[in-house]
Amino acid sequence: MPDVDKELEEIKKLISGDDSDARPSSNALVPSRSGPGVPGAPKSPENKELTVRPAAQKPAPAQPRQVPAQSRPVQAQPKPVPAQPRQGPQGVQRTAGGKALGVPSAPGGRPPGPANKTEPPGISDGAARVRSYNISDSGKITKKPDKEQVPDTGSDKFNIDFDFDGEYRDVPEDKPLRRRRERRTGCVGGILYSAFIICISLVLASLLWLATVDVLGFNSVDEQVNITVPAGFTIEDVTDMLFDAGIIRYKFLFDLYAGYSHAEEKITPGAYILNRNLDYRSIVQGMTARAGVRVETTVTIPEGFTLAQICALLEDYGIITSAGDFWDVAANHDFNYHFLDKETLGDKLRLEGFLFPDTHNFYLDSTPVQVLNRLLREFDRRFSDVYIERAEAMGYSIRDIINVAAMIEREAGSDQERARIAAVIYNRLESSSFPHLQIDATIHYAIAGTDIPFSIELDDPYNTYICEGLPPGPIANPGLHSIRAALYPDATNEYYYALNREGTHNFFRTYEQHQAFVKSDQYGGR
């Protein structure tokens, strides 16, 4: 035991460097066997001397620490290792000269240094003795137990500062990490993918072509269609009408174009003529007041038609859409014509007689003001200054002349007898013996549109059997022949006429002649 204590004492001196005789002057030192007689070297119990000498080789670089598979303590193995440079305090054991006395082994029990490396020449038995002791971090030196006698208790452990749970928290338990294989489609997959892309491209190209054909009006029939845009329309209403007429094929596409081009602000109400082969831009332009071709309708107003009959006719042709609006305009609109009496404003029949009957062209969906103004303008054009002067020469107003002409229009059976009927009317008007005109057409005018039967006793201002002079107003809208007959009557002394079976009239001077004809089989009246 004294020898062991002494040996321990020598080892401490070697490690701590307190032995001045054993401390080297430079470089790292390792224990070495030397021959006898080296001064200052401590001697072992076997009369062997310990000395230190400079290391014959450069220290090997420090090996990187390997991370064990599990955080369990690994016991250092007592196998000899090559000399290592002095390192920090992470459990590395040092000699007095800076040489490593023992290092913990890597996982699996192998040292981190080069394996099976032989001792460098000159290493003494002192180094072997040093390796048989354990040196703790606190500097305590203990003798290693015999492997055969003392089992490995795992008391010497690594202190590893590594968070295995945190670093490997995403790794599933009991499942090894595998490298993900890259999937490859192969030749067949590439062909199928290419075919899919080609099919999608063809479908998109077809849809684009169909849209282009509709927008540009290709492959459409050269056919004209009438389109009526009502007042207060919306672009959806116009789209529906164009689709129903076969002018467009895709509603959503026209709605997109209409929104882009602000078509709703350009289109004006009215009736237009559109062609089915027009492009979208031409369709919108065709429904504008300036560039659009509006639909015109030709209407023939027969001579002798009343205001009520004209209103019904225009409504049947679609020129006016509201009879109520027509009558309201006729009564209350102040048309600027010299032959109209402003005192009659409010009378729905004030325009009767001045709507010249003829063949007229009207725009579909025209306003009542436009329609009535056109008819009044035509009368003003036809009733020339010569006629105005003739009326003044006769001592009658224009309204009186038209009043007489209206009765002629309703009574005459032929153009040849118009002036003769006019003579009878003027002869009665200018004779005190015949205060009443006694014209049946005035009674028919009064009861038109009612269930009232014809009667000469009818209490009505238009009954010329009981009311003297001219009726309150014209009973029809006379044509030019009747107007000329009223201005230029025949010169006769006849005061009566009666309808014959041929549809014309026979004229008489006396009441007795008239009654004899009425009783004969030649009479064609009631």
Q: Classify the beta-strand content into a percent band.
A: 5-15%
Structural class: alpha+beta
Average pLDDT reading? 76
Helix residue percentage: 25-40%
Runs with pLDDT <50, length 5+?
19-57, 67-78, 85-119
Note the gap between the termini.
173 Å
Task: Compute the CA-based radius of gyration.
Answer: 66 Å
Q: Tell me the number of strands.
A: 12
Features:
single chain; 526 residues; alpha+beta; Dna Ligase, domain 1; 4 domains; two-stranded antiparallel ribbon; two-stranded antiparallel sheet; 17 helices; 12 strands; 35% helix
Describe this structure in words.
With 526 residues, this protein is α+β, with helices and mostly antiparallel strands. Helices cover 35% and strands 10% of the residues. The strands form six sheets. A two-stranded antiparallel ribbon has the order 1-2. A hairpin with a 5-residue loop joins strand 3 (93-94) and strand 4. Residues 19-57, 67-78 and 85-119 have low confidence and may be disordered.
List the helices and strands and how they pair.
Blueprint (H helix, E strand, L loop, with lengths): L1 H15 L12 E5 L16 E5 L38 E2 L5 E3 L22 H7 L1 E3 L5 E3 L20 H4 L18 H31 L7 E6 L5 H10 L6 H11 L1 H4 L3 E6 L4 H6 L10 E5 L6 H10 L6 H10 L26 E5 L4 H15 L2 H10 L3 H14 L6 H12 L10 H8 L32 H8 L8 E4 L5 E4 L2 H9 L7
Antiparallel strand pairs: 1-2, 3-4, 5-6, 7-8, 9-10, 11-12
